[in-house]
Amino acid sequence: MIVVAWILALLAALPLAPMVTKAVNYNIDASGVNDLPSEVAQRYINENFGGSTAQGSSTIILLKNTDGSIFEDSIKYSIENMTERIQKAKTDGKINANVTITSLYSSIYLYTQVYIDQIGPLYSAADNYSVALPLMLFEVPLLYWDSFNNTEDALLIVYDLPQHYYDNWLAENQTGRTITQIDSYAYNDTRLWVQDVISHRTSLNSTEEELLWLYLDDFTNAWNSTSADPLFNLHPADRLEEAMESSYPLFRDQVMQRLHIISLIYIELAHANFSLNDYQDFHRISQYNEVAFDSMLEIVLDQVPTEIKDDVLLYYGTFYNLWNGSASAPSVTQFRSYGDQAANVTSDAAGSPVKELIDVFYFQLGWERRLDLATIRSLTLTFLSNYTSTQPWLVQEIIDLGDNPNSTEVDALAAKLVQNSTVDEYPLPMLPLIPLMLVDDGNDSTIIMIGYSVDGKYTSGTGYVSLIRQIVGEELSAQPNVEHYVTGLDPMTYDQEAALSKDLEIVDPVAIILILILIGLFFNSLLAAALPPSVIGMGLGISFAAVYLIATYVFSVNFLVITLMITASLGAGCDYCIFMLSRYREERRAGKEKDEAVQEAVTWAGETVATSGATVMIGFGSLFLASLDTIKSFGTMVIGIVLALMISLTLVPALLHIFGDKLFWPSKGIKPQSQLGQRYFKHAAHNSIKHAKVLLVAAIVISIPAVYVMATTPTSFDLIESMPDSESKSGIETMEATFGGGMIQPTSIGLQMSGSLYNADGSWNITMLNAVEAMSKRLGNISGVSMLLSATRPYGQTVDYANLSHEYTVQAAACLAVMQRMVGEGNDSALVLIVFQEDPFTAHTIDSIKEIRSIANTVNDQQPDITAAYVGGGTATIYDVATTTTSDFLNIIAIAMLLIYIVLLLVLGSVLNPLRSLLTILLSISWTVAITAIVFEMWMGMHLNFLVPLILIVVCLGLGMDYDVLLSTRIREEVHKGMTTNEAIEHSMLQTGGIITACGVIMASAFGSLLLTGNPMLMQFGMALMIAIVLDAVVVRTYLVPAIMSLMGKWNWWAPKRLQRGGQKKE
Asked: In the listed set 312, 344, 370, which residue is the last one of a domain according to the structure?
């Protein structure tokens, strides 16, 4: 019935057991504790920045050209083909997620698209504006001069002509001629003056000449009409005023009839705003003309961007001041010098691009070529090319796309540029972030980053690693000079999983074969050798199913649990089976019948097995007290021990009851124990008792340096160093040497600001940015920081963020776009990303988190505009894992030792003997850690993983106690039967020494099989546990325990009467 029940349990577990390797976690994280700083920080970052920064790129393709530049065309085409094939895999359904691929050339392509989209309208506007710009620089001042001249010409007609007529009349009036003669001579003199003015005044146009003659006639008629009035002749000034007043309306009507509108405007304004007293005042004319000029200036200012209006006003203001500073109207040379001086003053005061525009469209173009459209076009292309660092031919092509180019044309041009251009000679300026992030300093390596998402949320790409590696390998198969690695978080997980499967293929058969050989030699039987691993294998199948359910529905289980569960369950379970089989065989040798032998085995060996199992379960189970799921998951190994214990106490006795001595086939009957083994253990027990003090002193002396080494050896949290050799690990190591290992997982810092990073008008809040920059500066000074990105350092270097919004370049626009991505959704948080030179899990990098958090915790004292700072990312997580594990370590060990002590106290009925058991276990552990540290650190150059001491102690407290319990309970049994302590020790060593040694070698072999794996962490576990078990079984239990128990004598069994389990013979 028992056998059937176990078979049914195994059948129920079989569907789930094989899936356990897919359910376990191949990373170490801080899950299980929601209030850890890194978890709090990551939630804050996810909420404010979408979590993209936390995950980063899950897959990284690293390419390294060992014989040239990474920019070679062949490599470029391979990268483009990889990108196309990976995207096609999404279309073909081979990848069931959205794929984001960021390579050097995809980044350049996307940047080129943005560049053309943004610069195209600017180019087109500049092309149009380049015609208007010379007009602003040359024609507007010329219009002022023309306006001044037109005003002077109007004043010449309206006021100067009557004044000259009047002056001529006064002169003729002195001759004594008659009034009629004087009027006639004055008219003729004025006609001569008009002719002279026309011939010498070049500013007069034909219309003005016509109007000058017209007004002469109108004024003369009005003058002559008053010749008969003696009062006017006696007062010629009044006659002049009368003539002007009566002639002007007629003259104005005649001008209007001739449709000389412009001239009429100037004449009307001149007539209304001047008089005979001030029409020749140069400054009065200039002041009047400025009013008209200001009206034109308003029109001009409406056409220019707000940011350069001050420059425009400075230019025109300087020009006017120079004009107004002279005493008379300037000559052409003087006039042009005013423009030169105004241009120089404005250029000196202005920033970019006004300074460059003045240089090109004023000084290079010049007064003589200001209307030459061909020259203007050539200068425009040159200016745009120089100012935007773009080839002239590309400037022209972008201009030809028009003001609003469609996406098809933009994409085609961008593709053409990427296809036909090299990175070194790209025809448009490159953003510094592209080569900085994707190409190493030597230009021989580049990375391609791949991320996966579903419904906008990050998803693992572990299942696509094999496909990516296939594509990369095929595309680079013809380029042996290009080393390639597919690495990153997903490939690391994939390689860990593959390595685990490979390790299991090695560990399982090797461990089982060794167990079969060793048990076969011990029992001299094939069936007895096959029984323990077979029945314990059943338990492992059920255990795997249980672990699968826990990993899927309860909490994360670390992948190392699977391998350790196999070796621990096989080792402990086979030990338990051997205890039962050995005691059965011993009872049969004593002449007892089969069923009685089974009963005795269950009674005495069963107690030992149950006690041993209880201590192991306490050891493993104590790990459930850990705060982190990663550590807690190792506690699930207790499932394997529980099942091994149950099988040993139920299934093995059932099989013994059914098959009896047949289980020891091909041995014929139960042979007596080897005399050789008995002599060895008899001498070992005798000598241990004889030289007990020497052995104890020697153990203490050996332990002193061992404890020192154990206490001073630093443990490592470097997950990458602990990985097995694989493509992803090699890729990370290569990337660390070229880019800095921190690229794989930057440290994210979320800054909570006291207000918005934007002002109400949408501009940057410089006060907040100053606070971000101050924080960035402090963080950037931390040792080991390779690069820091923030809202003020979008490319890793501080930008002129206060003036960036006023720069009219695509680089500035792209810079602003990166800055905006570093601002959280509510606009009141900012993100800082730190990339370390070393990989995220080295001791130096992890230690940096302490300094970063120190800065973060005091940020509000230094920068009141930052109310809080949250430090997240993989390195921060490992730092919390380290501190939490260190904090949990002593508690777990203390509780495990206390519970084990209580169990041993109850089983052995002794207060002191359990203490001795624990102390001897701790001695073994100290020796083991010291040996393991020396082997791995000094010989293999590998740091001791932080999990090794913790797991080693709890495993040894449990499994190592098996042999102590077996020996102690047997000694107690013999003492209970009346032997003295020393007699009981010698007798028990004869009966159990072989079993303990055999079981120790079997368990050590099981753990030793881990040394055959390629996983450094498993190798450390394997060596440490193998050494610990060998030391405990072969040295401590064989020599040290008998020596100490001999010295303790009756005190081995001292306890309050209620706890005592039997007396002893008086010694």
From this structure: 370
Identity of the residue numbered 890: L
Neighbours of 754 (CB within 10 A): 15
Nearest to 636 by CA among 541, 556, 537: 556
Question: Does residue 857 sit in the same domain as residue 894?
Answer: no
Handedness of CA 286, 288, 289, 295 (dihedral sign): positive
The amino acid at residue 660 is: G
Kind of pairing between the strands at 482-487 and 866-872: unpaired
Omega before 353 within 30 of 0, i.e. cis: yes
Nearest-10 Cα torsion for 59, 628, 499, 478: 10
Considering only the C-alpha atoms of the chain, give the largest distance between any 2 of them, rounded to a whole number of Å. 180
Task: Show the CA angle centred on residue 504, arms to residues 645 and 501, nearest 5°.
Answer: 130
Q: Give me the number of domains the chain comprises.
A: 3
Beta pairing, strands 715-716 & 445-454: unpaired
- According to DSSP, the residues that pair with 452 across neighbouring strands are 99
Q: What tokens appear for 122 in the block?
A: 């600017």
Residue 58 lies inside a defined structural domain of this protein = no
Using alpha carbons, select from 881, 902, 888, 1010 the residue that is nearest to residue 953. 888
Supply the pLDDT for residue 296: 67
| Residue 652 lies in domain | 495-668+675-712+882-1053
**Tokens representing residue 1030 in the block:** 């060998």
Supply the DSSP string of 181-213, one letter for each residue. Answer: HHHHHHHHHHHHHHHHHHHH-TT--HHHHHHHH
Answer yes or no: is 101 within a domain: no
Task: State the DSSP string of 971-1011.
Answer: HHHHHHTT--HHHHHHHHHHHHHHHHHHHHHHHHHHHHGGG
- Phi, psi (5° rounding) for residue 448? -120, 125
CA atoms within 13 A of residue 757's CA, in its CB half-sphere? 28
Report the C-alpha gap between 1036 and 272 in whole angstroms: 124
Question: What distance in Å separates the CA atoms of residue 1055 and residue 1061, rounded to the nearest whole number?
Answer: 9
φ, ψ of residue 889 to 5 degrees: the values are: -50, -55
pLDDT tens-digit profile of 394-453? 888 888 888 777 888 889 998 898 888 888 788 887 766 566 678 888 889 999 989 888
| Distance from C-alpha of 1045 to C-alpha of 1042, rounded to nearest angstrom | 5
CATH number at residue 833: 3.30.70.1430
Residue 613 identity: G
In this structure, is residue 87 part of a structural domain? no
Contact 961, 592 (CB under 8 A): no
Closest CA to 247 of 272, 280, 278, 225: 225
Amino acid at the residue 642: V
Backbone φ and ψ of 574, nearest 5°: -65, -35
Kindly tell me the burial class for residue 793, based on how many C-beta atoms sit within 10 Å of its own C-beta (0-12, 13-18, 19 or more): buried
In whole angstroms, give the CA distance from residue 883 to residue 879: 6
Burial of 658 (0-12, 13-18, 19+ CB in 10 A): exposed
Residue type, 807: E
Instruction: Check if the beta carbon of residue 990 is closer than 8 Å to that of residue 981.
Output: no
**Is residue 415, in this structure, part of any structural domain at all?**
no
Average pLDDT over residues 349-377: 84
Q: Please tell me whether residue 394 adopts helix, strand or coil conformation.
A: helix
Backbone φ and ψ of 455, nearest 5°: 55, 35
Residues 868 and 886 in one domain: no
* Tens-digit pLDDT profile for residues 98-134: 888 888 888 888 888 878 887 777 777 777 767 777 8
- Residue 366 phi/psi, 5-degree rounding, is 80, 165
Find out whether 601 and 675 touch, Cβ atoms under 8 Å.
no
Helix (H) or strand (E) holding 767: helix 766-780
Is there a single domain that holds both residue 812 and residue 684? no
pTM of the model: 0.71
- Name which of 57, 80, 736 is nearest 472 in CA terms: 80
Beta strand pairing status for 944-945 and 715-716? parallel
Taken in order 168, 169, 173, 177, the sign of the CA dihedral is positive
